[in-house]
Amino acid sequence: MTLLPLHQSRSQGEVLAQLTRDGLVESIHSGHFVALNSDGSVFKSKGAIELPIYGRSALKALQAAGVLRTGVKVNSKQLALMCASHAGSAEHIAVVETILSDNGLTIDQLRNAVDKPLGDEERKAWGEKAPTRLTQNCSGKHAGMLAATAHKGWDLESYLLPSHPLQQLILQEIEALAGERVSTVTADGCGAPLFALSTLGIATAFRALTISTDPIHQAIIAACKAHPELVAGNGRLATRMMQAIPGLFMKEGAEAVLVATLPDGRTLAFKVIDGGLRALGPIIQAAFELWGISTPDETVAVMGGDRVVGTMKALL
């Protein structure tokens, strides 16, 4: 048994990636990582995969399952946007607007946080205009929640309260898929309820979603695979990975959470403890290499002037 230093708790995880400059380790990124075999058994793990974490926007597809459980009807593009942390492109915004208009709702009824577009190019194009609820990256999720609330005739003003019937339905869906109880409920950055699960529970939930025969679950995975450009945005990590790897579903969340799942049920989930995003690409590339799957090159070059003097390397 390996003993940890006295100052290191299991909540700090294990090293998932390190940055080197001319052979010297300059920075490390620790976290929790789990990869599941197609039968649900653990293929590889690092860190404390049983400890609760906030899955942040990586959980949006699970929330969408609870939304669809109300019986509300949406098309494939709308469903993909409900699962998205969208970049705020004109197409993204237009699809969110259709979710609202198709259900007799208006932008003024959204209760998510305000923000400028998330995508770099989209934010640059937005310029000095004021942030809005529509351009905030979670507006698709919120529009879907509003649509479901209206469909059921529930109170629209309070749809973000954890006690709201919709949020209770979402909680039940998440716990059923994860096979564990949510340990903590708080508010996400967008204002919606946020549920804490273990890294293993998150991976288990997405494996269950992927291999499920439930028409709701199948519709969610199919919509995201059909429209990877809506799930994130052109050039962003989840979109380019889904476009490159047949059958892949992948979703990132704030504070460096990522989940990815393949049609046969192989699934991985991880959380980088420091919340930094720069290690996500190298880690996901290394993780798929464990399964013999080629990905786009996610090499992070460390520069010394105009010369490459190091790299970010995943340690799985």
Attribute tags:
single chain; three-stranded antiparallel beta sheet; 316 residues; alpha+beta; Beta-lactamase; eight-stranded antiparallel beta sheet
Structure summarized in a few sentences:
By secondary structure, the protein is α+β, with helices and mostly antiparallel strands. It has helices at 60-68, 76-82, 90-102, 120-126, 139-152, 165-178, 199-211, 215-226, 228-231, 237-244, 280-290; strands at 14-21, 24-36, 42-46, 52-54, 185-187, 193-198, 249-253, 257-261, 267-272, 301-304, 307-314. The protein has a single domain (10-314), classed as Beta-lactamase, CATH 3.40.710.
Largest sheet: 8 strands, antiparallel
Please give the alpha-carbon distance between the first and last residues: 19 Å
Strand content: 15-25%
Mean pLDDT: 95
* DSSP strand count: 11
The tally of helices reads 11
What is the overall shape? globular
CATH architecture grouping: 3-Layer(aba) Sandwich
Radius of gyration: 19 Å
Regions with pLDDT < 50 over 5+ consecutive residues?
A: none
Instruction: Please report the first level of CATH classification, the CATH class.
Output: Alpha Beta
Order of helices and strands: EEEEHHHHHHEEHHHHEEEHEE
Write the layout of secondary structure elements.
Blueprint: E1 14-21, E2 24-36, E3 42-46, E4 52-54, H1 60-68, H2 76-82, H3 90-102, H4 120-126, H5 139-152, H6 165-178, E5 185-187, E6 193-198, H7 199-211, H8 215-226, H9 228-231, H10 237-244, E7 249-253, E8 257-261, E9 267-272, H11 280-290, E10 301-304, E11 307-314
